[in-house]
Amino acid sequence: MHPTTRHLERLPPEIWHDILSYACTDGGATGRALALTSRFFHEQSHECRLHSVQFRTITRSAIFLRSHRDPRECKIRNFFYKPHLSDIERHIALEDLTIARQGLFQSLLHNQDIRDGRGTAAVLALAARHLRTLSIAYHKLSTPIPLFQHFPKLQELSVWNHPLAEHPVLDSLLLGGESIEANVHRPLCPSLKRLHVILTDSDMSFQTILRRLPDLASTSLTHLRLSGVTYTEDALSDVLAAMLGVPAPLPLRERIRAPGDAASRAGPVVPDGATFPNLRFLVISAVQPRFDEEAGPEVARKWTGMLGLLRELERTCKRVRGMRMVVLERSWMRKPVWGVRMQRDWEDRMLGGPGCWVVSEAEESKIEGPVDSPKGVEW
User: Fold this and answer.
1) Cα angle for residues 61, 57, 75 (degrees, 5° grid)
2) ∠ at Cα 187 (143, 141), nearest 5°?
3) Cα–Cα distance between 21 and 299 in angstroms, integer?
4) What pLDDT does 375 receive?
């Protein structure tokens, strides 16, 4: 044995695991270089491999599944998935979820024709026990990956055009030896603290998704961001107020007619009856409509009314101790390219950065640029 190796072995393996894990926070280049340095580092790196995984093609998910068949050996902590358009064209939809009753995990794992949603669902089943952060982008040409696994350690979730808990919980499903039947009355992500929902599909609604939120997250949720809010979300402020346990905002005319002086309306607010009592940080990214002759004054009226209610709710949150709400307003010409932004936020959060959790319009502008500059296509 080389003398240098004997000196290295004096340190406990746990310390080397922490060192190698920290070395992988730059995207994996330093960790890979250390693993190739010697046989000792190669062996120590086994515990730190594949903690962060990103899939964009069908081929990569299929290769991963063929080489990682044992859930005990798969310790993915950070997972990012965004299907490529060329793969969506070859996508085979997972239309019949009843195959899960015969064991979806084994069925997908041993399928020789693993494709898109099937392969990714199997990867999630492998990683469910250890997953910490999860980012999923979904295109309307493909079938969304059903989130009916139990994620006991998942702390941050970002989804783009995903219906979340729309699919029913299958009572007889077995994934990794754990029955979903026992989890029917508890959320799928009991440790979830941060949730970012992005909607660019006009057929989907934030109000509908938020009403399903108790099936996904528990009361431990502390951060919530909604990106892509449009003028059609007229009742969104009431849904958010119920989640926070604060009074629902009133339109300007009703606030003027409401009894009481300005001092009473500016006093502190104590939340009461909140459905998510630990929710203390809320970011709303609203997208202005395109004001033209086709839209007409009705669209402008709805946009002004909805934005006014959100601004009033923002002022109410400032009166709650420890609560913060940020309302961002973006032009329809300056909508973020979410496929790029989600990956950037995912990597920033792994490095300990704020990611999408900005505290002001100025911070958002540093990421997305000036609000008056047009941008490219959405996908």
Assistant:
1) 35
2) 10
3) 51
4) 46
